[in-house]
Write a structure and sequence with these properties.
Its EC number is 2.8.2.-. This protein is of the alpha/beta class and about 325 residues long. The protein has one domain (about 60-305): Rossmann fold (3-Layer(aba) Sandwich), CATH 3.40.50. Helices cover about 45% and strands about 15% of the residues. The strands form four sheets. Strands 3-5-2-6-9 form a five-stranded parallel sheet. Strands 10-11-12 form a three-stranded antiparallel sheet, with no helix packed on it. Strands 1-4 form a two-stranded antiparallel ribbon. Strand 7 (about 185) and strand 8 (about 190) form a beta hairpin. Helix 1 (about 1-20) packs across helix 2 and helix 11 packs parallel to helix 14. The chain is globular, with a radius of gyration of 22 Å.
Length: about 325
């Protein structure tokens, strides 16, 4: 049905172009022109985000939100879920519930940023900053108290290193000064627990705020460490959580030896995550690693008790 609507739009746009321009367009140029006219991008959800509204669709408030965590694998999770025909995704991070300057714009502004969807489809947006935001849990609850939330987590220490790596490369690209990981994490011989990347990995502290507003059965935790090694089982759990038919299969993934992680195959196309994903991490001093493992151990144990589930973290 989706492809039929897209074909209809392509033909309509072709007729409009040939009528108004009075001359045929070469095949390659025509295709690019049609793409720009109707928003024909790289995956199905981006089709809906074009200005042309497919018949029978509307922009809807998300029924599911990926709330975090930053550098936990949120982009991979979103891209992989986008394979499912009953899911459409917002392709950009909206930051509606964690940025006051966006929240004051109101729910209609939020809705306007969502993709077009059919009634049988679930709209999902992801903003990793929600998980650590003091305001987001209450604001999301006020919008929809029965919403389903997805939270993807990975080993807290690995997440800190990944967080540092992203900032490191961003600063390099901006020609700004960079510091070695150890200089940031260790201050005056002790662990710098005020470092934002460490604060973001205190999952128990952040989860406590969410459980004040939502029942645990409304929050599904995806194991980010498992997702990158073996995507299908984690995605099947999400399908069950969202009460969706099983549509994501093993043939939707292939391991890219060059990039070192799984890429996606769907609708006859192959795509990998952006080149900024999967960057090599710095080699971290073992003593510093042990300090991080030790610091997070108690927090991890508390988190396991909160969610009635344990993870294979250090």
């Amino acid at each position: 049905m989706i492809l039929l609507h897209m074909a209809f739009l392509l033909v309509s746009a072709y007729l409009l172009l040939t009528h108004t321009q009075g001359a045929p367009v070469e095949n390659g140029a025509l295709l690019e022109t049609l793409k720009s006219q109707i928003g024909f991008f790289s995956n199905k959800s981006e089709h809906y985000s074009s200005q042309v509204r497919p018949p029978g669709t509307n922009r809807r408030i998300p029924q599911t939100i990926i709330i975090g965590v930053r550098k936990g694998g949120t982009r991979a999770l979103l891209e992989m879920l986008d394979i499912h025909p009953n899911i459409v995704v917002a392709t950009t991070e909206v930051h509606f519930f964690d940025w006051d300057e966006n929240y004051v714009k109101g729910i209609d502004w939020y809705r306007s940023l969502m993709p077009f969807s059919y009634e049988n489809q679930i709209t999902i947006e992801k903003t990793p900053g929600y998980f650590t935001s003091p305001q987001a849990p209450e604001r999301i609850h006020d919008m929809n108290s029965s919403i389903k939330l997805l939270l993807i987590l990975r080993d807290p220490t690995e997440r800190v290193i990944s967080d540092y790596t992203q900032v490191y490369y961003n600063r390099l690209e901006s020609h700004k000064r960079v510091q070695p990981f150890e200089e940031i994490v260790i201050k005056n011989g002790a662990l710098n627990t005020k470092y934002k990347a460490i604060q973001r990995s205190l999952y128990d502290i952040h989860m406590e705020k969410w459980l004040k507003h939502f029942n645990l059965d409304q929050i599904h935790i995806v194991d980010g460490d498992t997702l990158i090694k073996d995507p299908l089982p984690e995605l099947q759990k999400v399908e069950m959580f969202l009460n969706l038919p099983s549509r994501i299969v093993s043939s939707n993934f292939y391991f890219n030896q060059t990039k070192g992680f799984y890429c996606i195959r769907s609708d006859g196309r192959e795509r990998c995550l952006h080149e900024s994903k999967g960057r090599p991490h710095p080699v971290v001093n073992n003593t510093v690693l042990e300090q991080l493992y030790s610091f997070f151990r108690e927090h991890n144990a508390k988190f396991y008790r909160m969610v009635n589930h344990s993870f294979d973290w250090h």
